[in-house]
Write a structure and sequence with these properties.
9 strands, 8% strand, 2 domains, two-stranded antiparallel ribbon, 480 residues, alpha/beta, 42% helix
Length: 480
């Protein structure tokens, strides 16, 4: 019987084959946000919130600064939409932070705070008491600036105006951006499917080689088709008719699957404004990606997230409550515990629901879990000349890797096998060897995801090894 290998694929695993990086998607999101603002004749709230986040992050330590990318900004759009939802729903912290009034520096074309509500916020109440002068100053800017444009508003705009106008604007831009993202990734995947490049071949040989040696299961955090192309006939959770099969996902004992935990370019709503995600086998089919800012039913703490076919941005646990994502996440927990080995490729360790699934499985205490019982872990990533050894790193990627895989050590035990000094990641990549934390059975390959096929026998040896010969697997890579 083959051992079970759990594979988790992040964005870095598919960049080499021609799919867009997070940085590229950041640029596209900025372009799409500007397009949405022009179409609607209003402010680009994606740009507003990105600039606000940049200003905030610059006030803190650069080393611990979270990555500011489109997912963070999408998260802020959802949060701001709930901030702007009027009482008694929305975010109650709006009352504590700014006395129930809108953010003083954000402008919404379709929203106007009623003057009596602004005045009421300035009065003492049984709840939070605001400073009258501060409220009057901040609120007058918002009301006056919006009043200037009222005369030119047409009837269609007036239908959106009122208490819910800002919330609708923010939700509409969020949905527009997610729809654009789905369309872009689908188009990129269609073009990629027509190309048979050397890099594609390496990707297929890497996953194919792992499939020959292990019973594998893949959790793909990407939306693309690359893993599916490399693993033909792998189970996706959907039946032949394109219907999701939750009962089979939960009862299935076989592995050999590819689950798209954050959505797929093959996903579509069953109809326009539909309430079910289905699988379209052909990317030339008709797709519905959730336009028009369609709300779902409230999730935790009243959070309402527009229904789309992709999971992106913050509030991921709330987004994952919608099928097929909830079943995928539940099965991830089960498969993490069932795995004999784990391979992580191109993942930035930025998703708490993934990190905690790994951490809870790998948690180490001498009386509960011996090191021999920990599944060996291989991390495939890419280093450049500036990348420091794990023991010398204090960036978020290294910290989250250490907490997730090495039970909070933050990489303090990483060394090159047989070398007591700190290895240089770029040199390790050139020599084709690994950096290893022997205590926690974690090895890191710095040569890039697809290039790991050069050391596939050593990767397999590490993942298949018992504790006694784990270091031998890493050391032997130097001689190949």
């Amino acid at each position: 019987m083959k051992k079970k290998l759990l594979i988790i694929l992040g964005a870095g695993s598919s960049n080499a084959v021609g799919l867009p990086s997070v940085k590229c998607l950041d640029q596209l999101m900025e372009r799409w946000g500007a397009e949405w603002a022009r179409l609607l004749g209003t402010t680009d709230h994606f740009r507003e919130l990105r600039q606000s986040a940049e200003t905030y992050y610059e006030r803190g330590s650069a080393g611990l600064r979270p990555a500011l990318n489109f997912e963070k900004v999408l998260s802020d759009i959802v949060a701001m939409a709930h901030w702007m939802e009027p009482s008694p729903w929305g975010n109650t912290l709006r009352q504590a932070a700014c006395c129930g009034t809108p953010p003083p520096h954000m402008k919404f074309r379709y929203h106007k705070e009623l003057e009596d509500e602004v005045a009421e916020a300035a009065l003492p109440s049984t709840g939070f008491v605001c400073d009258e002068d501060e409220v009057a100053c901040e609120s007058s800017v918002e009301v006056d600036s919006l009043a200037d444009g009222e005369a030119a508003a047409d009837q269609g705009e007036l239908e959106w105006r009122g208490k819910y106008g800002a919330q609708i604007e923010l939700t509409a831009e969020y949905s527009f951006l997610l729809e654009k993202l789905a369309q872009h990734m689908r188009a990129k995947s269609q073009r990629l499917n027509l190309v048979n490049s050397p890099v594609n071949d390496k990707y297929k040989r890497l996953l194919g080689g792992l499939r020959e040696s292990f019973d594998i299961g893949v959790y793909n955090l990407n939306y693309d088709t690359v893993a599916l192309d490399a693993l033909p006939a792998a189970y996706t959770g959907f039946g032949e008719t394109g219907t999701f099969e939750p009962k089979l996902v939960h009862e299935r004992r076989e592995w050999d699957f590819v689950y798209h935990l954050h959505g797929s370019v093959h996903h579509s709503l069953n109809r326009r404004y539909g309430d079910e995600i289905v699988w379209r086998a052909s990317l030339d089919s008709e797709f519905f990606d959730g336009p028009e800012g369609q709300w779902t039913e409230p999730r935790s703490n009243g959070i309402k997230i527009p229904r789309t076919t992709l999971v992106a941005g913050g509030f991921k646990l709330d987004q994952l409550l919608f099928e097929p994502f909830q079943s995928y996440h539940a099965s991830l927990i089960r498969h993490v515990h069932a795995a004999d080995a784990i391979l992580i490729g191109g993942y930035g360790f930025g998703d708490a629901h993934i990190n905690f699934a790994l951490r809870n499985r790998l948690r180490f205490t001498s009386d509960r879990l011996r090191v021999q019982e920990r599944p060996p872990v291989m991390v495939l990533t890419l280093a450049d000349e500036t990348t420091r050894p794990m023991r010398r790193r204090d960036d978020l990627w290294a910290r989250e890797l250490g907490v997730s895989l090495c039970t909070g050590t933050q990489g303090h035990f990483f060394l090159e096998p047989g070398n007591p000094s700190d290895p240089i990641p770029a040199e390790l990549a050139m020599r084709g060897t690994f950096e290893v934390d022997a205590q926690h059975r974690v090895a890191v390959w710095y040569g890039g995801f697809t290039e790991a096929v050069q050391r596939l026998p050593n990767v397999i040896q590490w993942l298949d090894s018992g504790f006694d010969n784990a270091l031998a697997a890493a050391t032997s890579a130097q001689g190949m």
